[in-house]
């Protein structure tokens, strides 16, 4: 029995495996637990195995690779066109087995444990930042109902909240004052947790050579550098910087037909968190970078003269993404281009 490709539909406890032979005929069709799956694949000949890129796929991909199989992770949206008729777990596995054979299919690199750890740090920090913002907004809303207002952001809360709680003339009932004090303590606890995670991410960035090279790029700090390394590793999944920028959703969305090219706003596909980090870094570069004597500064001045500020920031994020991929994939340090005298 010759196996051409294998598709595995992942679940929390059960996995559905379909193997295709010559001419796409189904030769194996099994429902297995995690332990049974690894035991079954260990006794198979080295094969091409496809998995959907989802939770748990990187662990299983590493385990199957250690058994000698060639494992490829496929984004779920690229598997759907191969699904026939109704949807069930076996049909999903069969669609994965057919999709994994395509040479022009886009695959997801299997992440290492270090990448997954770094990605987990970023996700926890992002959740804490979201909670901190929610606490600030709730405090501002409560105070606004009592005739007190202050500006948005953590800095304003840190500066004005102690004065508001100690002000006896503020129109606050004892119950509301106690509630605001509770929210104030919650905010300080979240701030400490975010600071600890940021410090840990910074120490990881200092100890990683790739992150140190990326930090030389203007607008790329420890958060952006470590997020890029956690997401794409050495960048080998992309052939050029434009593919990386397209994966981030930083290029125009295209809707062309009949030979007419129509470009819309940015597509906003791919990694939302990483795209947000690049836009924040681009905003800092646009506002603070010294533009005199550099080619990128001259480019920003020319674009700013004919486009709004936000368009300049997104275009700068696109450029930063391409430069980041070039530095990461080449292994060489960033060299800023200067204007010739």
Q: Can you describe this structure?
A:
It is a single chain. This protein has helices at 34-42, 57-66, 76-79, 89-99, 113-145, 154-166, 174-207, 209-214, 222-232, 241-248, 272-288, 295-304, 309-330, and strands at 5-9, 14-20, 26-33, 48-52, 70-74, 252-254, 263-266. With 341 residues, it is α/β, with parallel strands linked by helices. The chain has three domains: 5-99, Nucleotidyltransferase, domain 5 (2-Layer Sandwich); 113-207; 231-330, no CATH class. The strands form two sheets. A five-stranded mixed sheet has the order 3-2-1-4-5. A hairpin with an 8-residue loop joins β6 and β7 (263-266). α5 packs antiparallel against α7, α5 (113-145) crosses α9 and α9 (222-232) packs antiparallel against α11. The N and C termini lie far apart (70 Å). The model has no long low-confidence stretch (mean pLDDT 89).
